[in-house]
Write a structure and sequence with these properties.
196 residues, alpha/beta, Helicase, Ruva Protein, domain 3, Dna Topoisomerase Vi A Subunit, Chain: A, domain 2, 2 domains, four-stranded parallel beta sheet, 8 helices, 13% strand
């Protein structure tokens, strides 16, 4: 294999879920069938890496110091939703009618991976809560061991600031059948049940 082709394959492996064979298929496709697309992809990657940073307020991806969501006067300043990733923020925006503000952690507490409160920007979150505008902190971390530990830590920060913490519900998916739901999910669903 050509050294440049090998370098391209190795570079493509940085993408999540892309192994050696998938990266090789992508590289061959770009070189054999879509060189114009490959050039456009390369240009957009360079531009994005150079120009996209983080919002100073919510820490999501933004080309400006303050993103469009934080700049919007129509959002509810009393609600602040904390998510693990920018992808989670976009999922909430697309799937719900939530109209509050956001804070993106870019991860979750994981001491083994060297991710503590500082790396997640929790001092910035505490400062934001201290401003006194937020009344409810909605914790929307994933239901993993690290996500649950992060949720607990976030709730403590909220309580210390006099802000009511809440946690998004986890449990049985719409259209799911109980006999096929795993034990952990069913346990979460029962412990987080609501009165009807």
């Amino acid at each position: 294999m050509s050294p440049l082709l090998d370098e391209l394959v190795q570079a493509l492996r940085c993408l999540p879920g892309v192994g050696a064979k998938s990266a090789q298929r992508m590289a061959f496709h770009l070189l054999e069938r879509d060189r114009i697309g490959a050039r456009r992809l390369a240009e957009k990657l360079v531009t994005a890496v150079d120009r996209i940073g983080f919002c100073n307020r919510c820490r999501t991806f933004s080309e400006a110091a303050c993103c469009a969501l934080c700049s919007a006067s129509s959002r509810d300043d009393e609600l602040l939703c904390v998510v693990e990733t920018a992808a989670d923020l976009y999922a909430v925006e697309q799937a719900t009618g939530y109209r509050g503000r956001y804070f993106v952690l870019h991860g979750r507490l994981s001491p083994l991976d060297g991710r503590g409160p500082k790396e997640l920007g929790l001092h910035q979150l505490a400062d934001r809560l201290a401003e006194g505008l937020v009344r409810e902190l909605i914790v929307a971390t994933n239901p993993t061991v690290e996500g649950e530990a992060t949720a607990h830590y976030l709730a403590e920060i909220a309580r210390a600031a006099g802000v009511a913490p809440s946690r998004i519900a986890h449990g049985v998916p719409v259209g799911g059948e109980l006999e096929y739901i795993d034990r952990s999910t069913l346990s979460h669903a029962f412990s987080g049940r609501l009165r009807v």
